[in-house]
Specification:
Helix content: 40-55%
Largest sheet: 4 strands, mixed
Number of strands: 4
Oligomer: single chain
Strand content: 5-15%
Strand order of the largest sheet: 1-2-4-3
Number of helices: 10
Structural class: alpha/beta
Order of helices and strands: EHHHHHHHHEEEHH
Length: about 200
């Protein structure tokens, strides 16, 4: 049994950060709850036109990025990247396929002036909170539910640092959960039990 846990999905976290930092409140039927450690609101002086364009684009970018996060990458893609010339159009296309869509594709670094210090603090907190024993690993504590989900096809778990519970199948082999859900054995077992490809 092989399960991959992606606990720092950069493109998803960036989208959540920009949403919360700029109070975008996008019109989206299935947006996750706010980040646990909310960024300082309105961290720059951008024009309202920028904010409205961001608000309009956020749902589409979230859906595309979420679909990409749910994909299981073909290992041959890494070999193909290695076998292409640096900065060649072929390599750049393969890298785009690997990394998927992001906020930066559409808007560059605009709006991210204070993202890096926030991300650094998040990284330090995650490192401090990591279980030190294999028996403390969330997957070990919810092993029966994990095995059941794996038998249904689950091979990848993606976590986001949002408040409360938010669980979604994001592909035929992937599940999205909040860090808080994954940290609570009963909640995590329940989330894994809801996995349906």
């Amino acid at each position: 049994m092989l399960i991959t846990v992606e606990d720092d999905p950069v493109a998803l976290v960036e989208l959540l950060w920009i949403r919360d930092a700029w109070d975008l409140l996008p019109d989206h039927d299935d947006a996750p709850p706010p980040l646990v450690d909310a960024p300082d609101p309105h961290v720059g002086g951008h024009a309202e036109g920028d904010i409205e364009a961001w608000r309009q684009a956020w749902p589409e970018l979230w859906d595309a990025t979420l679909r990409h996060a749910g994909k299981i990458q073909d290992p041959a893609l890494f070999d193909a990247i290695r076998d292409t010339a640096g900065y060649s159009p072929e390599r750049m296309a393969l890298l785009d396929q690997l990394t998927g869509p992001s906020w930066h594709d559409r808007f560059g670094n605009t709006g991210f002036e204070r993202f890096q210090p926030w991300q650094d603090a998040q990284f330090r907190q995650r490192a401090a909170d990591r279980p030190t024993s294999p028996d403390e690993q969330p997957e070990r504590r919810s092993l029966d539910a994990l095995i059941h989900a794996w038998r249904l096809g689950l091979t990848k778990i993606v976590t986001i640092p949002c408040r409360g519970s938010f669980t979604r199948a994001i592909g035929s082999h992937s599940l999205l959960v909040t860090d808080q859900t994954r940290a609570d054995a009963a909640a995590y077992s329940a989330a894994l039990g809801r996995f349906r490809p």
